[in-house]
Here is the input.
Amino acid sequence: MCENCQYLIIEKVICIWDLFVAGRLVGRQAFEICLFRQAITKKITECSNRLLFDSLIAKLPIRLGEYCRMLNEKQICENIKHLREQRGETLNSLAEKTGLSKGYLSKVENSSKAPPVSTLIVIAKALSATVSDIFDIALEKVPATLVKANERQQVAQSDSAYGYTYERLAYRYPNKKMEPCIYTLALNKRKSDVFSHAGEEMIFVLDGSMRFVHGDRSYLLEEGDCIYFDSSIEHYCISDGKKETRYLAVFCQP
Here is the structure.
């Protein structure tokens, strides 16, 4: 293969990655892209003149390695519908159990944007399930799972509509009682949505600082700080500082 052709192939892969992140490639298309990625990776390995492509190849471990693990938000919405039907619930009965309107639930099931985690918890509880069931319907029971640092599953909320994006740390373990995630609180949205859901939660700040509001109390959380709280009380985070804040959050659903 000529050098120019190899260059064009790599650019094509990067273009496909950008489309995937934008949520425009899902389902069968996403599966076919995974196969395409494998073929292209092989071609890159066979490249005779690697110096020409160093700048682009350096991007590929992130661009091609992470997208296969990304959980598209549309899939989360489809999983909610699948789980509801599996439980024999109608939109009306689910609306009564959750306190959410039938129209809102219908919109969620047919949306390409997943609702916030707090809403997922409410829906899961009404379906006698866990949030993990909504994320991981097809997983089989295993005694232990390992997720390496470069294998975390990113939830594709590219526009940070809720003021944050997050990575799931234990997505391979089914029917979890706890859901650990690493959140990134965006600077361009000073306040996240207000959340309230049954259970308990813990937050540990990894990098940066933020203001955490719980009920009528406010706490300044800085790097290394940890707070444990009743998540049924309304709470939210406010970006505080000049850079994004990353924190570990573990919530337990009763």
Notes: The longest helix spans residues 3-21. The CA atoms of residues 120 and 131 lie 6 Å apart. Strands lie at 153-155, 164-168, 178-185, 200-207, 209-214, 217-222, 226-230, 235-239, 245-252. The longest strand covers residues 178-185.
